[in-house]
Structures are given as structure tokens and as C-alpha cells.
Amino acid sequence: MIQAPKGTKDILPKDVYLWHHIEDAARRTAEAYAFKEIRTPVFEHTELFVRGVGDTTDIVNKEMYTFLDKGGRSITLRPEGTAGVARAFIENGLVSEALPAKMYYFISAFRYERPQAGRLREFHQFGCELYGAAAPEADAEVISLADSFLRSLGLKEVELRLNSIGCKMCRAAYHAALKEYFRPHLSEMCADCNARFEKNPMRMLDCKEEGCRAVTAGAPKILDYLCDDCRKHFEEVKRLLDDTGIKYTVDAGIVRGLDYYSRTVFEFVTKAAGAQGTVLGGGRYDTLLEQMGAKPLPAVGFAVGMERLLMVIAAEHAPVPEERGVTCYLAGMDETCRKKAFALATELRRAGISAETDLMERSVKAQFKYADKKGARFVAVIGESELEAGEAQVKDMQDSSSERVKFGELCTYFKKKTEV
Ligand code: HAM
């Protein structure tokens, strides 16, 4: 038996209603903030991610699913959504449309990581990107969207961590300070960190190795190196969040694992879901679009991991809607009755009422058992006498009450009964 590749997960019919629940909430929230959906390809030219996500990141160095296609092109399954959305935005000339542009997406993404709870090789994200606005209001709006989304799911223990990693200017001074700090410790740090030291010392702060973490704990903090403009921007973002009543903790340890960020970075974290504490991550990335060949255009966005979100929902016992079974199962006593049940099921379906009927030539008793297992709200039984009277015996499976309803009135009956 061929099994699913390591790090992938099937989403089964019995669980899919939970996905619909969070996707509905995501769509509702994004559209309330006037974001529109965008869909981009699952694979892109490898170069897009090398340039976009950055060649000093673990994602690009270790985790990408990259292969040559039959035409000899280097192709990569997207490890995240931001780079592809930026490419699509530029390539389709959306730069010349009304700004700011606001887009959201649902994607599957692929990273060759060591699988564990909440860490998969194929996972799913809901993300939002906002282009064209440099003002701190844009950062606050995107953070507020993320916050509203998580709150709309009833999550209470997810906390916002906020930081600023400055711009190119302030980062030059910070990199110098980091290098000075790390230089005497290099022999205690992993090979990756030694490589990061030359190329991008800030990446060292994100290292997960125990030995490296002990060293990075005492490293200089970026917030002490912000230039005046970046400091003002950060102060303003915090003020806007305070004004909107969004609680946060400033956390200098948040540097994010992708290279495109500048200024505001943020994560929503929780202790509820075990080792993988970060549910949602994002930030400002003002140089990415220019790096990809467009005119300079500021940008800010985030993505939330759907699998992690589901783990948090379960851990927090957040309310989820009940899975709904079919509205009516039509059971027929014999072959003629089953034919009538089939015709009535079609009528109900055409009227938008979910209906099911026997496809297995089962006895009425077995049909009832099936309807019960599948959570049918009503079972309408048609026997010889019902057929003669032109009526069905409708049983309410919630309270076990029963009544006879004329065939011609079944649609209206179920519509009324299931009205909310
Ligand atoms: P990221 O922090 O790499 O950011 O991923 C965002 C979220 O995706 C994480 O917080 C996590 O919930 C989920 N995630 C990441 N890797 C995995 C994995 N291997 N298994 C399961 N879930 C995972 C980005 O992807 C940026 N593109 C976010 C962004 C959008 N920044 C600006 N705009």
C-alpha cells in the first residue's frame, strides 16, 4: 500500500467542516477590511524565492522543494505566499491601479522541514498583503485584521508580539554591533550561525540550536539601534494599536525567518498548541517589490498557519459549529416507494434542500440506521399506504416526533423547519 509522503496530511470529510469554519471567518474578516482574494500558482521559478525570501534563510537554503521540469527550468513549490503575490501584482500591472492594493489568499505551501506536531511539509496558510501604504496606519490595519480574525474564532490565549527590525540604514549599525558581540562566541555556535555571521548576522538570532540560543540571549537589541524615522514609525504603530485596544508585548527576539522584512514585525503566539507556538507571522517589507523589479512600493502583510490554528482552536476549546448532516433522508419501503423517494429527493435538492436516498437497496430498517449514522435531521418514510395517500411520514430525528406531510409540501415544510 502506497502511503502519503512524510509530512503531509489528508483532510478527511469528517474534519473538513472545521476548515470551512476558519476559511469562512477568514474571508469574512478580510472582506470587512476591503481585501480581495488573489490566487497564484503552486509553483514558481526558483529564482523568485531565492531573491524574495532571501538566500540566507533556512527556507531557501534547506527547505525548498526544487526540481528541474522537463524543459530544464528550475521550479520550486512555493514555501510561502508573499513572493508569488508580489510577482503576480507586478506582472499583471496592478501597480498602476488604485492604491493601496489589498489582497488575501488561501494557499498550500511546502517546506522540507522535520515533521512534528504543527510542522508539516505541506501546510496551508491564510494570508493578507497590503501594497502602497507607507503609513503606520497600514501596519496597524493589517495587525488589526489578524487580531479580528483570531478573535472571531473565539481564541483568547493567542498573544501579539511586536518588534521593529528597522530599515537598511539602522540595520547597518546593528549588524556591526551584532558582529562585535558574536565574534568572540563563534566557536560555541553552530556551523550555520558561523555562515550567517558573514552574510546576515540577524539570522543568528533566529537559530534554534541550544548552544546558539544561550549566546543570542545576551545579544544587542535592534530597538536600541533604530534610526529616528523607524523609531517614530514604531511608536506610531504602537499608539494606533493602543487606541484600537489591541494588546501586545514588545519582543526584541522577534526577527522573523524571512529576509524581506523591514520595520514592523509581529507574531501571534500561544502556549496552547505545544512546541510550535507561532500561529501567525508577518510584518512590513518595503523593499521586496523594488527588489523584484517594480518601482519602490511599501508593503505589509501576514500569514497564519491553518493546521496550527486548528490545533489552537482544539486546545482552547474554542466554539466550533456542529457538523451538519443532510436535511432529509428519504426512505422507501419497497422498490416502487424507493423510486418515489428518489424523485422526491431530486425535487428537494433542486429547491436547495440537502436530501439523500437509498442507493444500496437496503431494507427500511437499514436505511434508518444509515440516516441516523450520517446525522440526517429528518427521515421521511414512504410505504405503500403513504404512496397511496400522497404523503410521507416525516420523523424529526432530534425529538423523535413524527407527522405526515403531503409530497407537494415537503419543500416548504423543510424550509420552514430549518429556518434560523
Ligand atoms: P512564516 O512565519 O514563515 O511567514 O509562516 C506563517 C505561518 O505559517 C507560521 O506562523 C505557521 O503558523 C505557518 N507555518 C510555517 N511553516 C509551517 C510548517 N512547516 N508547518 C505548518 N505550519 C507552518 C510567512 O510565510 C510569510 N509569508 C508571512 C507574511 C505575509 N509576511 C508578510 N506577508
Descriptive account of the structure:
With 420 residues, the protein is an alpha+beta fold. The protein has two domains: 13-167 and 227-316, Bira Bifunctional Protein, Domain 2 (BirA Bifunctional Protein, domain 2); 328-414, Anticodon-binding domain (Rossmann fold, 3-Layer(aba) Sandwich), CATH 3.40.50. Helices cover 38% and strands 20% of the residues. It is built from 15 helices and 16 strands. It has helices at residues 16-32, 46-52, 58-63, 82-91, 136-152, 168-182, 191-199, 210-216, 228-244, 288-291, 306-315, 335-350, 364-373, 384-389, 410-417; strands at 36-37, 43-45, 65-68, 74-77, 101-110, 122-131, 159-164, 249-250, 264-269, 278-284, 299-305, 328-332, 355-357, 378-382, 391-396, 402-406. The strands form three sheets. Strands 1-5-6-11-10-9-7-8 form an eight-stranded mixed β-sheet. A five-stranded mixed β-sheet has the order 13-12-14-15-16, sandwiched between helices. A three-stranded antiparallel β-sheet has the order 2-4-3. The longest helix has 17 residues, at 16-32. It is elongated and about 90 Å long. It starts with 15 loop residues before the first helix and ends with a helix. 39% of the residues are buried. Bound molecules: histidyl-adenosine monophosphate. Histidyl-adenosine monophosphate (HAM) is lined by residues 80-82, 111, 113, 118-120, 123, 125, 127, 129, 257-258, 278-283, 285, 301-305, 307-308.
